[in-house]
Design brief:
Elements (H helix, E strand, L loop, with lengths): L2 E12 L2 E12 L3 E5 L6 H8 L7 E6 L6 H4 L2 E4 L11 H10 L5 H14 L15 H13 L5 E5 L7 H18 L2 E6 L2 H7 L2 E6 L2 E6 L1 H8 L2 E8 L3 H8 L5 E7 L2 E6 L6 H10 L3 E8 L3 H9 L6 E4 L4
Parallel strand pairs: 3-7, 3-8, 5-6, 6-7
Antiparallel strand pairs: 1-2, 1-4, 8-9, 10-12, 10-13, 11-12, 11-14
Helix pairs in contact: 3-4, 3-5, 8-11
């Protein structure tokens, strides 16, 4: 399996902020790679460097086995987080325009545009101005424009940001079908763990401008290794319960999130009564208590000390 992208030690800084530091990542031929991390982690900066919109301050980057140039970057298709489509043009006009940027014109361009519109459920909107499309339709057209030149590497930057859950799932199915049909590799940036699990066969966690771990979803989940209890209560003063919870033997760590507290431990079932008793003594009314195997979100919590949308990690007393 050949390497499409090799990034080693990439560093990029702006005034008062370093966005990438010693960032290293590879993308293999046929791979569906999820780049996961919170907003501001450096995902979009890496994409701008990969596509030539930014230059790194340091590090080595190869695309399709050579130094990046215009020819190699023409083999990349990007659907950016902010839709790169023209609202006053129709869907068909947008696709024909983006095709022309890669010298795809005439009947060949129309056939390709018709096929993409059909595959992405936009065939009946081909002559409708983009301004009249729903948010989900605009995201699909944004993707179609990135595919007009049949790229070998497709980059989707937060492709379902701002979409409702049902539209998001529909988008996942369409992306998976297109990748399977074209055989292209895919780089997906997202902060939705379920999106990465639905689409990706390889995942890299990014935090504070660095890749902190990478591997298959199953391999990454083994890094957590413990059982997870998620507890939500009212009024939810979890920090006040911390000293008592830390005294329970076998608890590995605790993380306060926007949805409650996540407790990690070996052999969770025997500890459930102890945990609930502490909440009861603390005048906390438990409204949710769920025990599960580690998820990708749990692995990210363990590695970085924060959830993708914010969190505070509490290590047990030694």
């Amino acid at each position: 399996m050949g390497m499409l992208v090799e990034a080693e030690g990439i560093t990029k800084s702006y005034p008062r902020k370093v966005t990438l530091y010693n960032f290293s990542l590879t993308i293999k031929e046929g791979e569906i790679l999820g780049l996961l991390g919170p907003n501001g982690a450096g995902k979009s900066t890496f994409i701008r460097i990969l596509t030539g919109l930014e230059k790194p301050d340091a590090g080595r980057l190869q695309i399709f086995g050579k130094q990046p140039d215009a020819a190699s970057r023409r083999l990349i298709g990007v659907a950016p987080q902010d839709n790169a489509i023209y609202p006053l043009l129709t869907c068909m006009e947008n696709l024909l325009y983006f095709g022309s940027l890669y010298s795809i014109t005439g009947e060949k361009a129309r056939r390709r545009a018709d096929r993409l519109l059909n595959e992405l459920g936009l065939a009946d909107k081909k002559n409708i101005s983009v301004a009249y499309l729903s948010g989900g339709m605009k995201r699909r057209l944004n993707l179609a424009c990135a595919l007009m030149h049949e790229p070998k590497l497709i980059i989707l930057d937060e492709p379902t940001a701002g979409l409702d859950p049902s539209t998001r799932i529909g988008m996942w199915k369409m992306v998976a079908a297109i990748v399977k049909e074209t055989g292209a590799s895919l780089l997906l940036t997202t902060h939705y763990m379920e999106e990465a699990e639905a689409l990706c066969n390889h995942i890299a966690f990014v935090n504070a401008g660095q890749v902190v771990a990478e591997g298959t979803p199953d391999a990454l989940k083994k890094l957590a290794g413990k059982e997870i209890a998620r507890v939500r209560s009212i009024p939810g003063d979890y920090a006040r319960l911390q000293p008592s919870l830390q005294k329970i033997k076998g608890i590995d760590s605790m993380t306060i999130t926007e949805h409650g507290i996540v407790i990690e431990a070996d052999d969770m079932p025997p500890k459930i009564n102890q945990i609930t008793a502490i909440f009861k003594r603390g005048s906390e009314n438990i409204v949710e208590f769920a025990v599960s195997k580690p998820s990708l979100e749990d692995v990210f919590l363990k590695l970085t000390g924060a959830q993708l949308k914010g969190g505070v990690k509490i290590e047990p007393a030694k």
